[in-house]
From TrEMBL:
Gene: map
KW Protease (keyword) present: yes
Descriptive protein name: Methionine aminopeptidase
E.C. number(s) listed in UniProt: 3.4.11.18
Assembly description: Monomer.
Species assigned in the record: Uabimicrobium amorphum
Catalyzed reactions: Release of N-terminal amino acids, preferentially methionine, from peptides and arylamides
NCBIfam families: met_pdase_I (TIGR00500)
Cofactor note: Binds 2 divalent metal cations per subunit. Has a high-affinity and a low affinity metal-binding site. The true nature of the physiological cofactor is under debate. The enzyme is active with cobalt, zinc, manganese or divalent iron ions. Most likely, methionine aminopeptidases function as mononuclear Fe(2+)-metalloproteases under physiological conditions, and the catalytically relevant metal-binding site has been assigned to the histidine-containing high-affinity site.
Domain of life of the source: Bacteria
Binding locations of substrate: H77, H175
Example GO biological process: proteolysis
Amino acid sequence: MITIKSKREIEIMKKSGRLVAETHALLKSLIEPGVPMEILDKEAENFIRKNDGIPLFKGYRGFPSTICASLNDEIVHGIPDKRKLKEGDILSVDIGVKYRGYVGDSAWTYPVGNISKEAQRLLKVCEESLYLGIEAAVPGNRVSSISQAVQKHADKYGYGIVRDYTGHGIGTELHEDPQIPNYVDESWLSHDMRLKKGLCLAIEPMLNIGTHKTKVQRRRGWEVVLTKDNSLSAHFEHSVAILEDGPLILTKID
């Protein structure tokens, strides 16, 4: 069900989103070669709880951790474990928080030390795709306007656009309607909806250097999603509220 948020609800979502952004800032300062991913998870959980938030991912459908930490060819749902980060890695960190009953959700892909030019370009283009998608999130446009903006930019560089996982509505629940694909396809255009003031969305391009196809590995009772050809993958996400004068990014530090 699609829900439209009031001004009061959006104000609360700004606070949950800010907590997500502050958690990202903390983890960014800790990411370097030699750091075990499980340390990042512990630091994130402590910080979120200290600031009166609830780590939303922990226990969600059995997920064992506070953050999703997806390394190199892992696209989403990576589990932070004892593996130590290495020079040249890229690490996608997805953070979900519930605060006063409302959700903030954001993902960012971070370089670990010095990374290759190929990896640098992937991160740059994926982040650019996110902001182009956000720019299209205005009243009167359609969901496909966001999808087309992301796809057009990613296609210029020949990247595989992940199709099996999409952005989504957000509010009191982590995943609400509508789905926000990062590509345009005739199969879903018949359900393409117009964007309205008060709609809140998580826009999240996931781009692969190689194929768009994915594979799944079972780890600790959860499905970690990887690129089919083991190529590098990047993931950038913001939670956004659609206002009359344009999109408002909720998951940022003012």
